[in-house]
Amino acid sequence: MKQKLSKYFDKAKLTKLGSIVAFKGTKGDVVIRLGSPDYDIDEQEPVLVEIDGYLVPFFIQENSVFFSKNGELSLKFDTINSNEEAARVMKKDVYVSTEDLVMDADADDDDWDSDFKYANYDVFNQDGQLLGKIVDIDDIPGNPLIVIHNSFGEEILVPLNCAEILDENDTIRTVKITIPEGLIEALKN
Q1: Beta pairing class for 54-58 and 14-24
Q2: Whole-angstrom Cα distance, residue 43 to residue 109?
Q3: How confident is the model over 115-161, as pLDDT tens digits?
Q4: Structural domain boundaries of the chain?
């Protein structure tokens, strides 16, 4: 038993999966920016979050892992149930046992984020206000949504069929879009 547990606490036997960069929703789900687009995880095994120099194991809630096209994944830890609780792991590095790291055989390095041109672009509304960074398209049949993370780690979902591109700058990776009137105010309430 000792030998099996040692794989989780010896940094030489760990691989840095990525870093926790944002909240997703309001129930403590977190977004991890992966170190490689080829990384996948075994949901049955714990991940270790480095908090104050210590590796703290967290188990992943079943069926809570979702990958996005831009090299991030969202998940929910079993013991975290609110964004207030998740704040203690925000901006922390996440490790997995090298034995438990799964490499995605289907990943293609050349187009892992090219399915959506504006992934990782800063997005502004029609009034020039910065909304955040586009992280994904949630391809809901009949209602695809642009997923934006703002500077507070909050997620903003904008219906793709309502957003019209007004301006774009590929050099500095910005895009200006129309946002349906009242959408941002409705999200704040």
Answers
A1: unpaired
A2: 23
A3: 467 778 888 988 888 888 888 877 777 778 888 888 787 888 888 77
A4: 2-110, 122-188
* Model confidence, pTM: 0.52
End-to-end CA distance of the chain: 50
Q: Which CATH architecture has domain 2-110?
A: Beta Barrel (2.40)
3-state secondary structure the chain: CHHHHHCCCCHHHEEEEEEEEEEECCCCEEEEEECCCCEECCCCCCEEEEECCEEEEECECCCCCEECCCCEEEECECCCCCHHHHHHHCCCEEEEECCCCEECCCCCHHHCCCCCCCCCCEEECCCCCEEEEEEEEECCCCCCEEEEECCCCCEEEEEHHHCCEEEEECCCCEEEECCCCCHHHHHHC
Burial class (CB in 10 A: 0-12, 13-18, 19+), 57: middle
Architecture of domain 122-188: Roll (2.30)
In which residue are the tokens 């979902």 written?
Answer: 157
